[in-house]
Design brief:
The chain is an all-alpha fold and 194 residues long. Helices cover 73% and strands 0% of the residues. The longest helix has 24 residues.
């Protein structure tokens, strides 16, 4: 993938297409899991592409190219989150990209509804975490990045990432248990799994 850097710096069109092909899905997934909004994730993905293309000459090679791209992605997502928090806007929860398939899983419509409600509650709880906990938890649990990869992407030590994820899990348990006591009995089992 670092073989793309020089052609990107030389504005070679094939390199731009290859970059989008290789990184597009990964960038979108990070944006979606952090922003929880399909439309915002798509917009942010496009903004990341533009950012990469405009700032490719600032890539020094101190880190892997993929780490540099992930940092740009996280920075764009953080900008969006800060803007959302400033405006205090609350968006509607979108359905998850990979929803449970009724035919293959043989889940009843009621079961699917409960599953989607649980997912919506989890995402709502994740949005309640601090910015760094939100990002670290998302990268680890939804992007399946290792603590080392997260540390590189967030420019933190591995022990700081471990601590963020540990605190995020504790906070999620607390938030979900509060929702459980507020009357949602379906969360009891899933709260133990976090």
């Amino acid at each position: 993938m670092t073989d793309l850097v020089t052609p990107l710096m030389n504005n070679e069109e094939w390199a731009y297409r290859q970059f989008v092909k290789e990184y597009g899905k990964r960038i979108y997934n990070i944006c979606f899991y952090i922003l929880h909004d399909r439309s915002e994730a798509e917009d942010t993905t496009q903004e990341v592409f533009i950012s990469v293309f405009q700032s490719i000459h600032s890539f020094r090679g101190d880190a892997h190219f993929s780490t540099w791209v992930h940092r740009l992605t996280l920075n764009k997502c953080n900008e969006k989150l800060r803007f959302k928090n400033r405006k205090k806007r609350k968006g509607a929860m979108v359905l998850i990209e990979n929803q449970v398939d009724l035919a293959s899983q043989e889940i009843s419509p009621e079961g699917l509804l409960i599953k989607n409600e649980e997912i919506a509650l989890l995402f709502d709880a994740i949005r309640g975490l601090s910015e760094n906990q939100h990002i670290a938890y998302t990268l680890h649990n939804m992007q399946e990045m290792s603590y080392v990869e997260i540390a590189e992407n967030m420019n933190l030590s591995v022990s700081a990432v471990e601590s963020l994820i540990f605190r995020a899990k504790q906070n999620l348990r607390k938030i979900l248990q509060e929702k459980l006591h507020a009357g949602d009995g379906n969360l009891k089992e899933n709260t133990r799994k976090i």
